[in-house]
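Hey L., structure's done. Input below.
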Amino acid sequence: MTIDPTVVAATIASLVALVGYLGSQRIQRVERRAQLFADAMRAVDQVHELPFLIWRRADTSEETVQRLGRLQSELLQNARYYVNLLRIEAPYVASAFYLLAVRARRQTHVNRVVAWEDPLTGTGRRVSDQPPFRQDVGPEVQLCVDAMRAANSWAPLLRRRGLDHRRRRLETRESLGVPASEWFQPMSQGHW
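Output:
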């Protein structure tokens, strides 16, 4: 039995085309997810930046308070949006991002209170002074970045080794802390 060389060539060509197509689809998916992950991290960074904006406000007029209140609402809504979007797109990443968002939200709440109580610039405080804020989200950020890298790798299940243990440890740390306010609900309690 002989195989026609044109059939072999056509089979090889179609396999190469299929591999090329699947590879380009994978690259596009990784790029799309990387952009989504970067936007989600930016949303948390903006929430974390809010106390600094309040601390550096020019006055305490009603317009300023309303503007900062609207900004706060928009930033928190944006962070919730990304938590929910990640739940759909990458549930494993969503659990790590959720921990980061909760921690950032709680610290931002405490720092906002401090920022509103601080005197304005011109009343003895200089713009160059460092605000008395405490921000400790390093472990959550690292877990989130590692989960995002694992989700975009060629073998995501192999890259998750150790991430579950770190996530559980951070969940325990978060559950031991007293929340400043309950904005986020645990992921097991449905949506927001």
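Residues 5-55 form the longest helix (51 residues). Residues 178-192 have pLDDT under 50 and may be disordered.

-- N.
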